[in-house]
Write a structure and sequence with these properties.
Blueprint (H helix, E strand, L loop, with lengths): L1 E6 L5 E6 L5 E5 L9 H11 L6 H7 L7 E4 L6 H11 L1 H20 L5 H12 L8 H21 L1 E5 L23
Antiparallel strand pairs: 1-2, 1-5, 2-3, 3-4
Helix pairs in contact: 1-4, 1-6, 4-5, 4-6
Length: 185
């Protein structure tokens, strides 16, 4: 999936998402006060941490957030129901992605030299007291990736990035549909 980050007419950021099914959607940002676009922080963090169920993996699978708008293409006949199932199935991962991307965003935005790994571990522990599932190297990769993407963003004012196919969320099957053969009596 191709994602193009650009400045919007409001001074914020807009991410134009070109999905594999031919549908093109826009995801407006609400980040005029930051030099680093928040949705770009999601992109870098979710990609580095292999989060298929985050914002961009969910969008690639067909989810549509309330603030998104259709630009072109023809959505599937069951797009609203499918999108709702994807968002519901990924609810926990989306929450984690918001928290983790927020920490990575803050670190890159402020240039904070503090070790990022403990900050991410603490933020994660608020939502999930279980063991932290990522390595410190992956966290560092997210910071490096966002730093590099931000430099390109600032130099060019637009940014074209590709979401990996292996990080597309698996859509859950529709509810109430039975599959397979019925038992014979």
């Amino acid at each position: 999936m191709l994602v193009v980050f650009a400045h919007s007419s409001t001074g914020s950021t807009v991410a134009t998402v070109h999905r594999a099914d031919g549908v093109v959607m826009q995801l407006p940002g609400h980040d005029r006060k930051y030099r680093v676009p928040h949705d770009l922080a999601h992109f870098a963090t979710e990609r580095a941490l292999d989060m298929a169920g985050g914002v961009f993996g969910s969008i690639a699978a067909g989810a549509v957030f309330a603030n998104m708008r259709l630009v072109s293409g023809r959505p599937r006949h069951d797009a609203p129901a499918r999108g709702k199932r994807i968002l519901e199935a990924n609810k926990q991962t989306l929450g984690l992605a918001e928290v983790l991307a927020g920490v990575i965003h803050q670190v890159v935005e402020t240039g904070d030299p503090a070790p990022v790994a403990p900050m991410v571990h603490n933020a994660y522990a608020v939502l999930d007291p279980g063991g932290f599932p990522w390595s410190d190297d992956q966290v560092g990769a997210a910071v490096r990736d966002l730093t590099e993407l931000t430099a390109e963003w600032e130099a060019q004012g637009t940014l074209r990035v590709t979401w990996p196919d292996h990080l597309i969320a698996a859509p859950p099957p529709p509810r109430g549909i039975r599959r397979g053969r019925r038992g014979r009596t």
